[in-house]
Amino acid sequence: MAIRFDVLTLFPGIFDGFLQEALLAKAIAKRLIAVHRWDIREWTVDKHAKVDDRPYGGGAGMVIGCQPAFDAVEAVRRLAEPGELIALSPQGERLTQGMVERLARIPRLILLCGRYEGYDERIYDGLRPRLLSIGDYICNGGEVPAMVLIDAVARLIPGVLGDERSALEDSFSRPGWMEYPQYTRPPVFRGMQVPPVLLGGDHGAIERWRAERAHQRSLRLNVKGNDDDPPADGKS
């Protein structure tokens, strides 16, 4: 199944290198995925191509206005089959591997990238995008989060990785589960040796060793995650 991404942004050139290298470039060439970039400025009616203005009530920064965003999204939506509109925002629900797997089954994803102080709230109220966040931190805009989403979703499309087992064995392919350690040649480097079980050819022993190491890594991750959680009362 091919998937189409439509990215609405003020800076489409940011995606140039990202889309022209490695697996994504090959996937695009094979028509397994398609990525269309749209400059929101093309839809503004302002004679100076302005898309933002000062926020009502005062405050720092500028806010992207309703007119160019509404017109851009509505025009792009009409170009192909209906898809899911997603706004990359730190206020959104956290992007997880399970969510990525669900998004990979949707034929078209329309990604709205914010900038400056964000969008006029009426854009969210009127267009009703799904808000997604890649983590509890702030990026300069939605372009890098959009790249993360595209990269994570695209690798689940059959044919993109070549070996479909790679995606199935990845960390987070099962909730809370980390991948086992990997090694390659040479068997010894600077005194560090590949675990002998991986060199012995006993596939049953190898699978047991991998399962045990994955389990150990997963336990460490879960303990660390619990330690990092804030206290219930919100105090540090």
Describe the structure.
- With 236 residues, the protein is an alpha/beta fold.
- The protein has 2 domains: 3-154, 3-Layer(aba) Sandwich (Alpha/beta knot); 176-228, Trp Operon Repressor, Chain A, CATH 1.10.1270.
- The chain has 8 helices and 9 strands.
- The strands form 3 sheets. A 5-stranded parallel β-sheet has the order 2-1-6-5-7, sandwiched between helices.
- Strand 8 (188-189) and strand 9 form a beta hairpin.
- It is elongated.
- Residues 226-236 have low confidence and may be disordered.
How does the SSE layout of this entry go?
Elements: E1 3-9, H1 16-19, H2 22-29, E2 33-39, E3 52-53, E4 63-64, H3 66-77, E5 84-94, H4 97-103, E6 108-113, H5 121-127, E7 130-133, H6 143-154, H7 164-168, E8 188-189, E9 192-193, H8 203-228
Parallel strand pairs: 1-2, 1-6, 5-6, 5-7
Antiparallel strand pairs: 3-4, 8-9
Helix pairs in contact: 3-5
Write a brief caption for the model.
With 236 residues, the protein is of the alpha/beta class. The protein has helices spanning 16-19, 22-29, 66-77, 97-103, 121-127, 143-154, 164-168, 203-228; strands spanning 3-9, 33-39, 52-53, 63-64, 84-94, 108-113, 130-133, 188-189, 192-193.
